[in-house]
Amino acid sequence: MKLAGFLLLLAGWAIVVAAVVLLIPPNMRAIFVLAGVGVEIIGLTLVIRSNPLAVREKE
Amino acid sequence: MPITEIVLVTVLILLAPFSIAGISLINTGMGRSRSAAHSLLTSLCIFAVAAGAYVICGFAWQGYIGAPAHVFVAAGRQWNWLARGPFFLRGIDFNDAPISLALCLQIFSVGLAALIPLGACLDRWKLSAACASTALFAGWTYPLFAHWVWGGGWLAQLGINADMGHGVIDAGGSGTIHAVGGLTALSVAWILGPRRGKYSLEGMPTAIPGHNAVLILFGCFLSLLGWLGLNSAGAILFTGAAPGRVALIAINTTLAAGAAILAAVVITGLRFGRPDVSISANGWIGGLVASSASCAFVSPIEAFVIGAIAGALVTYSVEWFELHFGIDDPGGAISVHALGGIWGLLAVAIFASFPASQVGIGAGRFGAVSTRDAGQALAQIVAIATLIGFVLPLTYGLNFALNRVWPQRVAIEGERQGLDLYEFGAGAYPDFVTHSEEFGQFR
Questions:
Q1: In a domain, B235, yes or no
Q2: Model confidence over A21-49: pLDDT tens digits?
């Protein structure tokens, strides 16, 4: 799960970079940047949840 | 650069080491007494390794605005992603060029950033592993992101290339120094795991209080002095703030720290019945960290608000990391530096304004001059996304690989004895620490 989380972090950043570099319309660029940040948040959540102590505390 | 400006910036840069001393004392005070000497010596070694690695290759990859760099072309625009300087500082002009002043400031900045992970890894990080991890940090991780923000890299170019305000603004290093250091602290803390005895079998944390509140609070005073230099010199060298704004920067820095510690004192007082010394001290540093990015571009009232929010954020997040995320961070480094730094970057988007007279070599070169700009918010968000989406996986990957070839955690026996005795053979307080078995030998 941790590996998947880190891959999602990188994927989210790739979306952000692609939006900044390739898109011209400001609104479109902002939407894709925020979408990339959303993917990163999911990845960060996965990485944090993969910590055995965090899981144990929830249980 | 006029001689008066050179003298001013030099004096400000020479204040910066106080921040290193302050953070070292805070880390030591937050740890256990049986690892106090280890903490301070490791701080010195980390600073030494960071300075060495940065001189060997770090500055070559970080560079300075206008220096040769690797670029890639996309959608008809040039994006600067890595500096192309010579190793070992060859070819640097040490006369009156701003690059020599920037290099001097950066050696202290990288030393401070490299110290941050130690706060999260107290009482269980081997000296040799800390030095090896620091070499990776100062030689690669830090220079890369610092180039993107301070060296004219693609984040600084967002203003001119993507019409996002002035590009990423981070005058004193909220993101470049603290968030990068704080995310590295998170990575190493994950890899090391918690201190033995910190969590029960059910996963509930137990309190292991710091051993010396005086060291912690004196470290806070020293840090303020260092931050005044870091923020002022950084704002002049990296965002082109006029030297006349040093007074405003000093006021803003002090107010942010003051608001943060007051917020922490009030919140811990209300929640626990009495103010908590270590969390309040963390609040103070959190306020300093958050003030850094926007110190030259906000009013004193706005700096106060930024600091107060940072103090509240740190107070709650210290508990949150320990209780809900299972992360043992004795010095509060992750909350203070990672979250405080990210909040500092965001605060630029919310509070900062940029009259034409305030911008010069940094922001002015890469973006159009205006007062407030919606694109600035997006630029700051891109910087935060880069920290979380790129710097965190990078620094975790580097430390994970290092841990496979050179295990970073001390042996169980070392944790039981304390790192002073285990790694150095002597404690920091030999007169005060007694062991029953020693009495047994001599009586």
A1: yes
A2: 999 898 999 999 999 999 999 999 999 99
User: How many structural domains comprise chain B?
Assistant: 1
B124-164 residue pLDDT tens: 999 999 999 999 999 999 999 999 999 999 999 999 899 89
pTM, two decimals, is: 0.93
Optimal mutation site among B190, B322, B327, B382, interface A, most CBs of chain A within 10 A: B382
- Residue span of the structural domain in which B48 resides: 12-431
> Of A21, A34, A59, which has the smallest distance from its Cβ to B74's Cβ?
A21
CA distance B408 to B423: 13
Query: Residue B65 belongs to a domain with what CATH number?
Result: 1.10.3430.10
**Residue in chain B nearest A25 by alpha carbon:** B162
Say how many Å lie between the first and final Cα of chain A, rounded. Answer: 17
Residue B438 lies in a domain: no
Domain count for chain A? 1
Residue A31 structural domain:
2-58
The answer to whether the Cβ–Cβ distance between B324 and A57 falls below 8 Å is yes
8 Å CB contact of B326 and A30: no
As for the ipTM of the complex, it is: 0.94
* Portion 114-143 of B in contact with A at CB < 8 A: none
Written as one string, the DSSP assignment of B87-139 is: GGGTT---SS-HHHHHHHHHHHHHHHHHHHHHHHSTTTB-HHHHHHHHHHIII
